[in-house]
Amino acid sequence: MHDNTYLPDHFLRHIAAIMPAHLSMDEFVASCRRPLRRSIRVNTLKISVAAFVARMQPLGWQLDPVPWCDTGFWLSREDESVPLGNTAEHLSGLFYIQEASSMLPVTALFACEQTRRDGMLLDAAAAPGSKTTQIAALMENQGMLVANEYSSSRLKVLSANLQRCGVTNVGMTHFDAKVFGQWLPETFDAILLDAPCSGEGTVRKDEDALRNWSIESIDEIAAVQQGLLESAFHALKPGGVLVYSTCTLSLQENQAVCQSLQDKFGDAFSFDSLADLFPAAEKACTPEGYLHVWPQIFDSEGFFVARLRKQHSVPNTMFKPGKLGKFPFLPLPAKESAPMLREIEAAFGVVPQGNLFGRSEEIWLFPQLFEQVQGKLRFDRIGLKLAETFKKGYRLTHEWALAYGDGASKGFVELDIADAREFMMGRDVWPEQEAAGTGEVIVRYQGHTLGMGKWVGSRVKNALPRELVRDNNLFV
Ligand code: SAM
Question: Which candidate in 69, 197, 247, 285 is catalytic?
Answer without folding.
Answer: 247
